[in-house]
Amino acid sequence: MSKVVVPVTVRDLTLEDLPTLGESPSKLTAMVKELARAQVGEVDYLAVCGPSGQPLGYGAVDYTKPAGGATIYQLTVLGPFQSCGIGTILIRALEHNIRARGITFAELGIDDASPRPQALYERLGYTVSGSELGAWDIDTPDGLARYETTITLLRKQLLQPPALDSLDSALPRDIVRQLDSPRSVSQLADDLQVTDARVLWYVEKLAAAGLVAQTDHLWVRTPLGVDYLGTPQPATDDVTVLPGRTTYDYQQAFADSQAGMFGPTFVQASGEHGGRVPYARAVEFNQRLQDLIAEYFAPDRIDRSATPKYGFHWVLTPTDLHPLDEE
Hints:
Elements: E1 9-12, H1 25-39, E2 43-49, E3 55-62, E4 69-77, H2 86-100, E5 105-111, H3 118-123, E6 127-140, E7 143-157, H4 170-178, H5 185-192, H6 196-208, E8 212-215, E9 218-221, H7 223-230, H8 244-258, H9 279-297
Parallel strand pairs: 4-5
Antiparallel strand pairs: 1-2, 2-3, 3-4, 5-7, 6-7, 8-9
C-alpha cells in the first residue's frame, strides 16, 4: 500500500476556524469561552492544519489546574484524518507549550464510556493517576442535556524536578529574581555586574531545570522559578571556601584597630585584585604565594613574643567568564 505524505503545521485555533469544524452548537459555545480564556493566557488552543490552512485536529491546555500541572483537553481529530498521527502531533505541541512555561507534568482525562484514546496516550507516556466525575452539556434530538460520566485521569512527567544543588547559590537566584519582567542576557549582565557569558552559563542550566524560559530572545521566570525563589537558600557554614568566621575576624580586627587595641604602630592592609591570567601563571602565582606564606608564617619562623598577632586569609579562585562579544 502506498503512502501519501502531507505537510502539516501547528498554529493557534481562532474564532474564524469554528464554522469549519462541524461541531455541535453546545460544543461551539464552550469553545468560544475557551478561546476567550486563551486571550488572557489561561489556556492555549492549538490546531493542526493541512496545506490549505484548515484544521485537521485541535486541542487545548489549561494552565490553571491541577496544582503544579496543566490539563490537556478537548482533543479532537476530524473524522477523515483519524489514525494518521494528527493526535500525536497535537499532543506533542501542547506538551511543548507546557514545558515552555516550566510546568512539570501534564494531565488529561478519558471518558470511561469511550476508552479508545487511552492506548495512544499510554504510548505517549501517560499513566493512570486516578479518576473523577465529569459532566458537560450535549445536544440531543430533544434539546440540550447534561451528560455525566466517570473520567479516568492520566499523567505524564514533562520536566524532572530540578536538581538545585548547582543552582542554589546567590548568582542564579539573583538571575531568577531579576526576571520578574523579560530581560536579555546582556541586560541581566549589566544589572548584576557580571559578564554576559557567566549569565548565559546559568540561564541555560536554569532553563534545563524549568526555572526560566526564553521567549522572543528574552528570558522570563516560570511558575517553577517563582517556587524556587520561595525555598530557603542553604545557610553558609564553616566548611565553605570563605568561612563565616573569616569574615567575622576581618570585620572585628578592623574595628579593634580603630578602637586603639593595637596601639599606634601596626601594619594593616587589605585589597582585591582580579585579572585575566592564563592557567599556567595562576599555578605559578599560587606556588609562589604558598612559598611566601611558608617563609613568614611557618611554625619555626614565628616569634611567639611578638605582638600583635597577625592573621592572613586569602582566596584564589576564578570569578568570571570571558565576555561573549570579545575574542
